[in-house]
Each structure stands twice: as structure tokens, then as C-alpha cells.
Design goal:
heterodimer, A: about 140 residues, mainly alpha, about 85% helix, globular, B: about 90 residues, about 0% strand, elongated
């Protein structure tokens, strides 16, 4: 349980910082090109807790999947899980691209950023989380 | 999406059946519910749409996981490898 919580906290901190770096800094100008698609800064600030909860849900579910089906595989198993989840997510993102007027470049850069994010999250969770039997033997 | 989800199920529940597949699908649905919450915070969506997206993702992946778990049967060699590795 301690390892589970440690993996969750480490991955969450990374996800939070990476989310800010990718969306708040690197892709900032791209978002600015389509202001009508996004809420105003003041509205976003008022709904910031949804971002915190959303990121926590992603990390919690990720660690749960790893712990229940991939634990013991180490860093490589974590990376594999992250890559598979993100590749499936790219499929979902393409579906949104078909129905929302989001620029293609945003989908592309978001997918690349998402892949990097999930590889690192997977590696972190794989390195930190150890199943109970492995810890005692 | 379906292809990589099936790959994930094959690696997660070798011979696990519909129940284990549904459990994985439920968790995957929660993974994708997170970005929906974030979209709600940054895009002008209504709360009803958010609820619909989340419920849709969870139901969709739970059923898909159950279907894959019920249909997919790994080769005997793969099962042995998994059992050996988990010892």
C-alpha cells in the first residue's frame, strides 16, 4: 500500500508539472490562435479543481491497472502499459478531431506530448510500485 | 483505439475471462474520464455533456473489456510463460 501511494504521488506530481509545461508553456501560442474554443482565463481559474481531480483520476486508475495486472514487470511493463493506453487515447483524440473544430497541429502535438507523458508515468510507476510478495521475498 | 485496447486486454488478462476483462475495461474507462474532467475545465462544455462523456467511456470500455475477455484465449505457450513469470 505504501508503494502504491508513493507511485501515485510521484506520478501525479510529474503529470501536473508536465501538463503545465506542455499546455501552459509549449502549446500556449497554438491555443491562443483559437480563443473561441476555450474558456476565459478567469473561468478556467474557477474550474481549476476539475483539472486537479481529472489528473488524479488518470494517475490513480493507471496505478490500479499496473498493480492489478502488470506489477512485477518493472519499468518496462510500466512503459508498455503507458504506451498502449496512450495509443488507444490517440484513437479517441482523432474521434474528437472529427467532431470538434480543434486544429490538427494541436492534435498532433498533444498526442506526441501525451505519449511522452505516459511513457514517463509508466516508467515511474514501474520503478516505484512493487507487489507485496516481491517486497517480502 | 479498439486494437490497442485489445492488446492491453491480451497482456492483462491471459485466460482471465469476461469478469477480469470488464474490470480492466472499467479502469481504462476511468483513465479516459480524467481528460474529460480536464476538458470540462478548459472548454465551454455543459455539465450534462461531461456526465454523458464519463458514463459513456466507463460503460463502453467495461463492455468492450468483457467482450474481449470472453473471446480472447491465449496460446498455451503464452499462458505457461505468464505463470512461470508470476512465480
Amino acid at each position: 500500500m505504501k508503494r502504491f501511494i508513493l507511485a501515485f504521488i510521484a506520478a501525479y506530481i510529474f503529470l501536473f508539472v508536465w501538463g503545465w509545461l506542455l499546455n501552459g508553456v509549449l502549446l500556449k501560442d497554438l491555443y491562443a490562435e483559437t480563443p473561441n474554443l476555450w474558456r476565459s482565463q478567469s473561468e478556467m481559474a474557477g474550474l481549476f479543481h476539475w483539472i486537479v481531480i481529472g489528473q488524479a483520476l488518470v494517475v490513480f486508475s493507471f496505478v490500479m491497472i499496473y498493480a492489478s495486472g502488470f506489477a512485477g514487470g518493472g519499468v518496462l511493463a510500466g512503459i508498455r502499459l503507458g504506451v498502449l493506453l496512450e495509443l488507444a487515447a490517440i484513437g479517441m483524440r482523432l474521434g474528437f478531431y472529427a467532431v470538434q473544430p480543434i486544429p490538427g497541429r494541436l492534435i498532433l502535438y498533444g498526442s506526441i506530448g501525451g505519449l511522452i507523458e505516459m511513457v514517463i508515468v509508466g516508467a515511474m510507476v514501474g520503478a516505484i510500485y512493487k507487489p507485496a510478495s516481491a517486497g517480502t521475498s | 483505439m479498439a486494437f490497442f485496447f485489445t492488446l492491453l486486454c491480451a497482456r492483462y488478462v491471459p485466460g482471465g475471462g469476461a469478469g477480469a476483462g470488464a474490470m480492466l475495461g472499467f479502469l481504462v474507462g476511468l483513465v479516459y474520464a480524467g481528460p474529460h474532467l480536464i476538458s470540462f475545465a478548459v472548454q465551454p462544455l455543459t455539465f450534462k455533456i461531461l456526465c454523458g462523456w464519463i458514463a459513456g467511456a466507463v460503460i463502453q470500455f467495461t463492455i468492450a473489456g468483457a467482450v474481449v475477455g470472453a473471446i480472447y484465449k491465449p496460446a498455451a505457450g503464452h499462458l505457461m510463460y505468464v505463470k512461470e513469470r508470476s512465480r
